[in-house]
Amino acid sequence: MDLSTEICGIELTGPVLNGSGTFDVLAARRVFGDALVEEFPFDCYVSKTITMNPRPGNPPYRLWETPSGMINSIGLPGPGLEGFLERDLAGLAELGVPLIVSVMADCAEDFEVLVRRVAARDEVAGIELNVSCPNVHSGLIVGEQPSETEALMKALRPITGKPLIVKLTPNVANPEEVALGAEAGGADAVSMINTVKAAAIDPGDNRTWLGVGAGGLSGPAVRPIALAQVRVVAAAVEIPVVGMGGISDAESALEFILAGARVVAVGTENFRDPRAGSAVTSGLPAALARRGFGSLAEAQSARLD
Amino acid sequence: MDLSTEICGIELTGPVLNGSGTFDVLAARRVFGDALVEEFPFDCYVSKTITMNPRPGNPPYRLWETPSGMINSIGLPGPGLEGFLERDLAGLAELGVPLIVSVMADCAEDFEVLVRRVAARDEVAGIELNVSCPNVHSGLIVGEQPSETEALMKALRPITGKPLIVKLTPNVANPEEVALGAEAGGADAVSMINTVKAAAIDPGDNRTWLGVGAGGLSGPAVRPIALAQVRVVAAAVEIPVVGMGGISDAESALEFILAGARVVAVGTENFRDPRAGSAVTSGLPAALARRGFGSLAEAQSARLD
Amino acid sequence: MRAEARPQAPFGRRPCEVADSRASGGYHIFTLIDSEGPAPAPGQFYMLAAAPEWGGEGGRPYLPRAISYARVAENLTGGLRLDFLIDEVGPGTSRLARMEPGDSCHLTGPFGSRFSLPRELNPEAAGAILVGGGIGIAPMAVLRRELVDRGIPSRSLLGFRDQAHSGGVDELFGCDSTRLAFEDGSSGHKGYVTDLLLQLLEGDDASSAAVYSCGPPAMLEAVRQICLQREIPVELALESPMACGYGACFGCAVPKADGGYLRLCIDGPVVRGEEIATAMAGEPSVG
Amino acid sequence: MRAEARPQAPFGRRPCEVADSRASGGYHIFTLIDSEGPAPAPGQFYMLAAAPEWGGEGGRPYLPRAISYARVAENLTGGLRLDFLIDEVGPGTSRLARMEPGDSCHLTGPFGSRFSLPRELNPEAAGAILVGGGIGIAPMAVLRRELVDRGIPSRSLLGFRDQAHSGGVDELFGCDSTRLAFEDGSSGHKGYVTDLLLQLLEGDDASSAAVYSCGPPAMLEAVRQICLQREIPVELALESPMACGYGACFGCAVPKADGGYLRLCIDGPVVRGEEIATAMAGEPSVG
Ligand SMILES: Cc1cc2nc3c(=O)[nH]c(=O)nc-3n(C[C@H](O)[C@H](O)[C@H](O)COP(=O)(O)OP(=O)(O)OC[C@H]3O[C@@H](n4cnc5c(N)ncnc54)[C@H](O)[C@@H]3O)c2cc1C
Ligand SMILES: Cc1cc2nc3c(=O)[nH]c(=O)nc-3n(C[C@H](O)[C@H](O)[C@H](O)COP(=O)(O)OP(=O)(O)OC[C@H]3O[C@@H](n4cnc5c(N)ncnc54)[C@H](O)[C@@H]3O)c2cc1C
Ligand SMILES: Cc1cc2nc3c(=O)[nH]c(=O)nc-3n(C[C@H](O)[C@H](O)[C@H](O)COP(=O)(O)O)c2cc1C
Ligand SMILES: Cc1cc2nc3c(=O)[nH]c(=O)nc-3n(C[C@H](O)[C@H](O)[C@H](O)COP(=O)(O)O)c2cc1C
Ligand code: FES
Ligand code: FES
User: Fold this and answer.
1) Which ligand places an atom closest to the C-alpha of C250?
2) Rounded distance, CA C142 to CA C130, Å?
3) pLDDT top residue among D176 and B163
4) Is the model's pLDDT at A137 over the cut of 50?
5) Which residue CA neighbors atom 3 of ligand 4 most closely?
6) Average pLDDT in the C104-126 region?
7) Does A207 fall in a domain?
């Protein structure tokens, strides 16, 4: 079955991306060797979120397992913009699939620099704007306010003709309002959901488990929340939606497409199986056929009652 | 170990309530007989949310199981205020534990009537204000806005000296702001969390599973979300917090108390075991001891770093 | 002669040992030893969850599953032997079918309403007509046994999609008064079980009939319509998603004929045909 | 003589059959048959998840668990026999310990860094001192075997809380060059294993020592301090919560001596003592 598709002009061999920050290909290549590239599990690679300056990330512990999910408080460790462009970008360009670079900043000026410098590179097919990370306290969480999101998009839109994808936070009462703000500001797509604010208590001591007290929940536990948000957002905006949140197999990926997503991303499931992306793709033809679809496009255009 | 405690002046033999709408004692008594009353599993009974007029509730399906949780879209079926006072209240007064009646309305005037009529009854120890139900579209979701919540509380506070507990919605960016609004308006306590907006796709057909399209997620899947919200709210307000969301045993109940809740409520776990409330209570002494507490009060006053 | 009031369930869930578990014609049968509960009545069901490993790879099953008992007998060393007939349609039923002898299973119940006796339904009733479809033959099997015990004549009409969905017939039904229909024509009548019902009602004096049915929603609705049109009293054992089984969650709503909803776990699962608006509530609208 | 580069893990997780599973002195040992993977190197670990019933009563375990191999051998019918030593501390380790022969277990790996040889750590090294605590004796056991195979002398110091936390010693260690410490004094030296290390270092020429250690964080930090103070090269096999094991999630952060964090799954689990800021990162501050 033909699974090829596109998202805001980026041609894809299939609809399966990775969630930003859930698959460091450079590390994975060290561990698994060239098999990683030869059998690359995604149709498009989304980088971990890049920031202006290098960041060490949050103090340990950064992880806790929860019922059918996990909490992370990674805190965006990374080499910063220059380190990324000089050291990492070349390796990401060797994967044979389009590259989307995720960026985040705590002010519009830095966002502008990030978008300008990243978009200037031929290796980069599109840019994802992470306005939603619950771990970095920027004072202003842009992605919580429709008007702030629209203003940021209006500032960034003139910088590049390459697709700009806004990654929404699920921690709002009405995500469709933020999505409408992104669309009004000129976004080419929205991706969702990022992690849901969460905390855990140390099983052995009377303290919170995570080094910074709280983090973000992901995995199958949040899938019903993600499906609800994708559904309302896809119904509200014209631009396409990249759907994610607890996708663990082809059936759950297809649920997101039925809820209104154009393409999907696999995050936490990569930790359980490094080839989870391939498993989703290989299961899609049967999942589509079982629901009576002759092609991916049919499912993408199906509308739920 | 002594588990007795109190919440806004209501004396309790222990800290375990039921979540509103998760344990219809009148039905359970028909099914299980007097054993239900003799071995009543909760230290305080919270009624299903009562509305002004009788409501049939939502069309089927109303339930779907999710990874480590469930979605419901029950839609507050009930006999309405008069039916409740005339038919149901007497049975709820026979349980031998304090009774909190949950009420909900879509305008302040109806809320005033509900609180006045319910508070007038001696059987009633306190009133829970459900401003958070995600299933009933009131146009205005009071519990999403701190100022609306405060205004509602200011209108209701003069009506009764009995405790008024505000049940918060988790579907907001900053629940502590709403809690502060409730406190400023005169609330005696907040209870949290209600269910998290969620949806499911029919496994067999290309449609949403729930009759009304979406519903609310509960169960262990949401526990990390609830713990994070209880933690920030308990740190922000002076009034006590009734903590709930995925409590399934004594250890998870204690986690809520460590996160800042004064007492806890068991919801979805009742469906897995009608005696879940008793199981939580009977496990609490060992759970407290394992964490080095000599009494419930010590855990209630412990502060997490 | 009246059916007894419904037995009262012990408060709380109890662990029961799995005594037997085996495949049967595309379905699965397992046996639990219940040493605490009262004898259930035809039509009733239990909430079941494998213990302790309920909770599968994908975080489901999480809630217990409503399952009708298919046979009850006294256990030699005390308590009851309860047989259940399972159609593996998802994570819960699969997990139950994978239990092995010696495993433990959480059980709550018995829950719900029981079938009336034919004379309670229709004072003229000469006997009963039982219409079962697929996994719905389980409640029909227990009703048939009770009728045999009480000396009340009955005829059973059982319908199946194909041989792969026809488990339990030989074990649960004597062959004498039972007629089978297979949609794929692989045996018995080729077509729907409602064809057999219509034949029988044409031959019989419809005014002396009392019909009982359990099976897929579309079949139940067809049986219901056939009976309502002919003013034949009919009781249906319905299904609906259930979280608790004891009236706590209000999840198992079925629309009533006169508006509003009943809670199938306590007001059913056995309902009169005229009581409900449709036996297909929640199902995708057909055509 | 240099240790070989780390072996490369096959891409993706693979099902492995459980060949054996048994209790051992409060711990649990099980054996997996890995027919695809390369031979692992001392210090490396695997990510393991019981298949298909990973996912327990409370929705956990959900992620795979990092487990060091405790012994490797060729399997008679091909592939490797991998032994793992398990301390049941929560849902993941309990589920792994409950696997039975014939069950299947998902495995990814081998992952992570390997121990250096003593001469790589210290050109003067005459042999190796291995300090293991509790479940941390597993990596020490594989290192000891490799040293034996290479003809390099080593002494093992193993510490345990009590007999109930001392599994695997007899099986994994020859008794000859091994000294034991029990905190409860039930056997061997009464006290900490670090007492034994200090005794040894006093007797020995510290300049010819190379120390390796694996065990609980407080023990590792004590060993690290002892060695750093005496400028004795030391390699530690650390633990940290891990979600992926292959560098994908950035979850397994351990603070580096010069600021920032390393990812323990790819930059460790074996690290030099001077490389890290503490072996107790994330632990509640003591005192
Ligand atoms: C009173 C009662 C008695 C029952 N007796 C039996 C029995 O004896 N044997 C038996 O095999 N099953 C019986 N069932 C049905 C059984 O409870 C469901 O098939 C089961 O809950 C499905 O769980 P699952 O995890 O296997 O599948 P799920 O993944 O939950 O569902 C699989 C498919 O079944 C459908 N479905 C799920 N739950 C229900 C439900 N409760 N009612 C109708 N459709 C549903 C969905 O459309 C879905 O496509 C009974 C149900 C009720 C309410
Ligand atoms: C490289 C590496 C090798 C390991 N080798 C072994 C081994 O050979 N045998 C063995 O039994 N265990 C080993 N572990 C530890 C094992 O992975 C954890 O004990 C396990 O993940 C705990 O899972 P659980 O579900 O049983 O307990 P959980 O409920 O997850 O945790 C129980 C308790 O253990 C602590 N804990 C949980 N995860 C970790 C962790 N990753 N590191 C430190 N403390 C933790 C927590 O404080 C908690 O109190 C290793 C860990 C790593 C990182
Ligand atoms: C360990 C971890 C790290 C993440 N890092 C990022 C990140 O750097 N940028 C970002 O936009 N999202 C990040 N996310 C969010 C994921 O991309 C994704 O939105 C979320 O996890 C939901 O999908 P899932 O349930 O499939 O994991 C991270 C998630 C996890 C679990
Ligand atoms: C079936 C069901 C019905 C509910 N009905 C109500 C209700 O009427 N009023 C209310 O305030 N909360 C209601 N709730 C929310 C619960 O009281 C509780 O806040 C929530 O389920 C989280 O707790 P839990 O995870 O322990 O179930 C309902 C929850 C469920 C699952
Ligand atoms: S299943 Fe819960 S009320 Fe019927
Ligand atoms: S465990 Fe995921 S990066 Fe180390």
Assistant:
1) 5
2) 11
3) B163
4) no
5) B21
6) 95
7) no
Task: Please check the confidence at residue B232 and state whether its pLDDT lies above 50.
Answer: yes
Which tokens is B189 given? 């306590």
Tokens of D98: 């409950």
B194 lines ligand 4 (CB under 6 A): yes
Q: Judge whether A35 lies within some domain.
A: yes
Measure the CA angle with vertex B129, ends B125 and B134; round to 5°. 145
Residues B42-83 pLDDT 10s: 999 999 999 999 999 999 999 999 999 999 999 999 999 999
What residue of C is the nearest CA neighbor of B73?
Answer: C251
* Domain range enclosing A256: 5-58+75-197+219-301
At C39-74, the pLDDT tens digits run 999 999 999 999 877 877 778 999 999 999 999 999
| Cβ separation C59–D56 shorter than 8 A | no
Name the D residues in 267-286 with CB < 8 Å from any A CB. 281-282, 284
* Cα pseudo-dihedral D128, D131, D137, D138, rounded to 10: -40
Say how many C-beta atoms besides its own lie within 10 A of residue C146's C-beta.
20
Among A49, A68, A194, which is best to mutate for testing ligand 3, by the most ligand atoms less than 8 A from CB? A194
- Is B107 a residue of the active site? no
- The total number of structural domains in chain B stands at 1
Q: Is residue B47 within 8 Å of residue B24, measured between CB atoms?
A: no
pLDDT in tens, B11-37: 999 999 999 999 999 999 999 999 999
Q: Say how many Å lie between the first and final Cα of chain C, rounded.
A: 44
CB–CB contact A221 C58 (8 Å): no
In this prediction the ipTM stands at 0.95
Residues B110-135: what's their mean pLDDT?
90
Fold equal for D14-111 and D118-237: no
Residue D284's CB is within 10 A of a number of other CB atoms, namely 11
A to C CB pairs, distance under 8 Å: 8
For chain C, domain boundaries: 14-111, 118-237, 239-282
Contact: B292, A206; criterion CB under 8 Å = yes
Shortest-distance ligand to the CA of residue D251: 6
pLDDT for residue B134 is more than 70: no
Can you give the CATH number for the domain in which B122 is found? 3.20.20.70
| B65/C63 CB distance under 8 A | yes
Residues of A in contact with D259 (CB under 8 A): 56
| Chain B residues within an 8 Å CB radius of D58 | 68, 220, 248-249
Query: In terms of DSSP bridges, do strands A189-192 and A241-243 run parallel, antiparallel, or are they unpaired?
Result: parallel
Q: What superfamily does domain C239-282 belong to in CATH? A: Dihydroorotate dehydrogenase, electron transfer subunit (2.10.240.10)
In a domain, B207, yes or no: no
For the question of whether the overall pTM of this predicted structure is more than 0.90, the answer is: yes
pLDDT of residue D286: 44
At A130, give phi and psi (nearest 5°).
Answer: -85, 100
Task: Read off the tokens for B46.
Answer: 């919270």
Confirm whether B283 is domain-assigned.
yes
Q: Which ligand is nearest to the CA of D242?
A: 6
Q: How many CA atoms lie within 13 A of C85 on its CB side?
A: 28
Helix (H) or strand (E) holding C91: helix C91-97
Assign a CATH topology to domain D14-111. Answer: Elongation Factor Tu (Ef-tu); domain 3 (2.40.30)
| Average pLDDT over chain A, rounded to an integer | 95
Question: Are B68 and C108 an interchain contact pair (Cβ–Cβ within 8 Å)?
Answer: no
Q: Considering the domain D118-237 in this protein, what is its CATH number?
A: 3.40.50.80
Is residue C6 pLDDT above 90, yes or no? no
Which residue of chain C is at minimal alpha-carbon distance from D98?
C53
pLDDT tier, A119 (very low <50, low <70, confident <90, very high otherwise): very high
Closest atom of ligand 2 to CA, residue D88: 26
**Stretch A43-70: mean pLDDT:** 97
A80 touches chain D (CB under 8 A): no
Dihedral of CA C149/C150/C151/C153: which sign? negative
Q: Is D287 on the interface with A (CB under 8 A)?
A: no
Decide if D284 contacts A207 (C-beta within 8 A): yes
- Nearest residue (by CA) to ligand 1, atom 4, is C67
Is A303's Cβ below 8 Å from some Cβ in D? no
